[in-house]
Amino acid sequence: MSQSLSIRTMAEFAAAGEVPEVLFWVGCAGSFDDRAKKITKAFVRILNAAKVKFAILGQEETCTGDPARRAGNEFLFQMQALQNVTVLNGYGVKRIVTACPHCFNTLKNEYPALGGTYEVLHHTQFINALMKEGRIKVEGGSFKGKRITFHDPCYLGRGNNEYEAPREVLLKLDAALVELKRSKQNGLCCGAGGAQMFKEAEPGTREVNIERSEEALAAEPQVIAAGCPFCNTMLTDGVKHFNKEGEVKVMDIAELIAAANDL
Amino acid sequence: MGIGSIIFIVLVAAASWLFARNIMRVRRNILLGKDEVINDRQPERWAVMTRVALGQSKMVVRPIAGFLHIIVYAGFVIINIEVLEIIIDGIFGTHRVLSFMGGFYDFLIGSFEWLALGVWVACVIFLVRRNIIKLKRFVQKELDGWPKSDANLILFTEIALMSAFLLMNAADWSLQQQGAEHYVKAGAFPVSSALAGLFNLSTAAPSTLILIERICWWFHIIGILAFLNYLPYSKHLHILLAFPNVWYSKLKPKTEIANMERVTGEVKSMLDPSIPPPAPAPTHTVAGHEVADRFGAKDVFDLSWKSLMDAYSCTECGRCTSECPANITGKLLSPRKIMMDTRDRMEEVGKVIDAKGKWEDDGKSLHTRITDEELWACTTCNACTQACPVNIDPVNIIMEMRRYLVMEESKTRPALTGMFNNVENNGAPWAFGPDRRLEWTQE
Fold this sequence. Notes:
The structure holds 2 protein chains of 2 kinds. Chain A is of the alpha/beta class. Helices cover 42% and strands 12% of the residues of chain A. Chain B folds into 2 domains: 209 residues, Fumarate Reductase Cytochrome B subunit; 161 residues, Fumarate Reductase Iron-sulfur Protein, Chain B, domain 2. Chain B is elongated. The termini of chain B are far apart. The relative contact order of chain B is 0.11. At the A-B interface, helix 2, helix 3, helix 4, helix 5 and helix 6 of A face helix 10, helix 13, helix 18, helix 19 and helix 20 of B.
């Protein structure tokens, strides 16, 4: 955890006349949320360790517009999207990686209609590819034999049919991967999607994240692996609700790989 | 030509005419929706239809209901081959006209019998699941009243039709055994011969048997014709619409929300004053009524025709609702209710058009039936679209209705107004400005 991070912005690359291998779209949660910032840094450590020449947009990055669109505000979504497309196309960006499935879905699926077509990867897909190329390995066995369960983010799994990349990465940890009762296509939402993250839940008998966390805890894992900053928040709160935060950790897949490699 | 044949021909003609009229009414109601061209990726569409509708691939995700449903579905499709023979016999006064096929005919009739028994048993189990075991998804409150009766009526009708079919064969088989005139020895009767034994039919008087056979024959065919005309008033319409509905289903990633072109024009003009604003909102005429092109959906006119076909294709099985995280945790939202409300509103509008010859505003809309609280409970997780055996998309309706609330009525949830302001002013859903976006690199 000691090395300082090596991070350059797209503007710095452009000024130096260089082209990065990939643009890391940090996302609002990854930039501002204290918990998600740790995921961002873990992912950057992995990128650094794998010697990936990546750039971020820095202050030029703004919200993709996902929560605005899902909350019905199409004008605001398109304002955001068109601004972002202008910036991305201005830099000639071809390839984007992000640790947020909501940014991933919007950039990959919804920007093409507004003139922004890129190859977009979720960070678990990117890490999986780095491993397959041998650019990063899992050293040591700090998670060997530990019970890990994976919560499928809706916007990665059902939304974009990616169930395997996160699991393939987790299997590299030599851990015991236990599936939840509702997983993959049948995965239960954490409760944050569709702009719910930014509002009070509608009245009901319980919170969605409590329902999901209860199910995750029933699998008796030592780690609940997540692949989305919002799922991470929801599940962390849920685990606390059951007073299990001492025994069960909610960690992003990037954090698990970084921790296993002592990065 | 006998009087029976004439009555038969008149009945079939009347039922066909009525059915055609009903289907045209359903078609007209579906076309109340907005135009949307869906004809891309055709090979894939045929493949999805073959797999999901014809092959019932999503039904068997729940093995018990899936297996039983396949029996009823196969029974419906295959036993209806028999209807072809019934129609020829009915018109010409013949009996088992296709029996010249010999061994193959025996095989067909034998398979129909086993299927009929299977359908009978499956429908009884379905009734038990609904009315005795009371599975949660069959007793939720949006099913109170007519939807529950509709479901039971369908099951009772199918049981009655299958009973008549088997009893008809039992009488026919007995007559064949007795060597009765007109009743040629044809067909194999593995189930009905046992039934005949059960009721001692083989020793009954030929006149009694002929009476039973004729009553059941007429009941069976009149029942089918009546059922056909019941479909357009029932959730059971799914047996027809499932196929086109799956063909036209969304092939794009589930969480992709379609772009609103008109908004793009306006936003581009806002961002760059040299781009002229788009032409004013177009209107389209629906049933003699001018409908403005709104932002989002206030009423059925504002939804795509595909969403309206979705609504007519829904058979209220409730798999969507039973997978919905909002519904599971006691929120008001039920994706099934969204579909039922959309269909009921469409029917309501259709009745006004039928009565007045054109659409006249009745002061109601989709929002009269679907509350804001339901709409705001959705997490857009797409568990409902995944669960639906015929690829219905409730999320699309919810999204369109949210768009209307926000963009036309400025109605939202207070916290979302805050989020909108933050995105607009800070470029983030929280109150952090762009100047703080790189702070994490320094921490």
